[in-house]
Amino acid sequence: MKIGRFSNLLIITLCSFLLSGQVLAAKIKVAGIYTQPLQQKWDARLHLALQAQADAGEIDYVYSEKVSNTDYVRVLREYSESGVHLIVGEAFGISAEARKVSDDYPEIAYLMGDPGSGYGGEYGNNFSVFDNYIHEPCYLMGVIAGGMTKSNKIGMVGGYPIGEVNRLFHAFMAGARSVNPDVEFKVSFLGSWYDPPKAKEAAFAQIEAGVDVLYAERAGVVDAARERNIIAFGNVNDMNKEENGTGVVVTSALWHMENAINHAISGVKAGTYVAEDYKEWTMMQKGGASLAPYYEFDDQIAADVKAKVAAISSDIMSGNFTVVVNDDEPKSTY
């Protein structure tokens, strides 16, 4: 009789523990909320990382794309009410509002892109933040670009002059100057995250101004480089293989969200999820960033430049070299 009572008590306690959300089943429900179409590569990196976990049977995954900021909080609350365990998305321009939602649903984990919001990064116990700190491979690209330019003029086309873009441009410029102190830069911002025709026109204008190398932070720049027969460097995704960049894109600074997403999912499943700044998860040491292969450009990059890139990469991974993070707006130098 005593054993039976103990068994019943154990079962009741275990059920309560499971229902409290401290321990979850092997598969959890995850929602993605994206302000841009999934063709826009920033959101695509998140989607691909989550889809990989869904394909592996680790999560049930639903998502919404092209959600405007004016509608974002409504969608965020709807998913929060729907029984999901983790929500991944963006908080650009709605940082305060997104945090208020997380207050109302303390049992749900939030992982939101929220760079430079001024709200102090992670919030409460359940609101984590991330950004793409791929400035390290951007520095490496700059080293290569500085060695390949013939005119000593490099063009850079970005979306908006915000920290997540500015730091990439500054790192690229620093890398180029480290091997070529005479290099100069043209910097243009589109005022849009996804407008390939506008990006292409901005790139054409820079080419007319004498640049013979382009940093394609936005889609559309590679097309301009191809038409004018100059080289380019890619951003976030492998633009040589994924954006018709064969013969044009020397290499790309890649952003990998898989390890960061897996860290969040594991925390939710184990009941150990806490609010964190995921900055380190988007850098090279934790597999969040890397440099794409050189592909058909391998023989066109000087051996000493490739050796320098390899040495710096090794030093970054060992912690012996730090690429400076500069979020100030970069300016053209000529």
Task: Provide keyphrases for this structure.
5-stranded parallel beta sheet, 17% strand, single chain, 11 helices, alpha/beta, 334 residues
Describe the fold and architecture.
Helix 5 (135-148) runs parallel beside helix 6. By secondary structure, this protein is of the alpha/beta class. The chain is built from eleven helices and eleven strands. The relative contact order is 0.13. It has helices spanning 2-19, 41-55, 69-81, 95-104, 135-148, 163-179, 196-208, 221-227, 239-242, 258-270, 303-318, and strands at residues 28-33, 59-64, 86-90, 109-113, 127-130, 153-158, 184-189, 213-216, 231-236, 249-255, 289-291. The chain is globular. The strands form two sheets. A six-stranded mixed beta sheet has the order 7-6-8-9-10-11, with helices on both faces. A five-stranded parallel beta sheet has the order 2-1-3-4-5, sandwiched between helices.
Through-space gap between termini:
88 Å
Give, in order, the helices and strands: HEHEHEHEEHEHEHEHEHEHEH
Largest sheet: 6 strands, mixed
Category by helix and strand content: alpha/beta
How many β-strand stretches?
A: 11
Query: What would you call the shape?
Result: globular
Low-confidence regions: 1-21
| Average pLDDT level | 92
Strand order of the largest sheet: 7-6-8-9-10-11
Q: If helices are DSSP runs of H or I spanning 4 or more residues, what is the number of helices? A: 11
What amount of the residues lies in strands?
15-25%
The whole-angstrom Rg is 22 Å
- The percentage helix is 40-55%
TL;DR of this structure?
The protein is 42% helix and 17% strand. It is of the alpha/beta class and 334 residues long.
